[in-house]
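Bug #77: duplicate submission created two jobs. Keeping one. Sequence:
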Amino acid sequence: MSKSPAPPLSRYRCAGDLVFTSGQLPRLADGSIVAGGIEEQARQALTNLEAALAQAGARLDQVVKVTAWLTDASLMPGFNTVYREFFAEPYPARSTVISGLVAGDVEIEAVACLTQGIDTGGAGKNAD
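Kept job's structure:
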């Protein structure tokens, strides 16, 4: 049985001062999904996101927008607990979608801005 070809996507793309990442799954270096519940999976997906940003020369504190997908709304509390380990106030703008996923229970993508002086307007106005 032959190995499947890599998916047709880039881990990240830059456009001016913006870095756009592809969705990061809770995969380990060997491609397997990390064992455990939402906390372990979220931590791995966010670690992978941090690594993708670093490859582009960006940091988590430069992230201005996050989109997260979870397989079930009941996973939100655990996801939010781990999310706070990686992001501090003012939190990035965020959308969270409940849907089926290719693998695991969480996928996370982000947009980071490489320039200084990011507008923090709207800080503290959390929708979820």
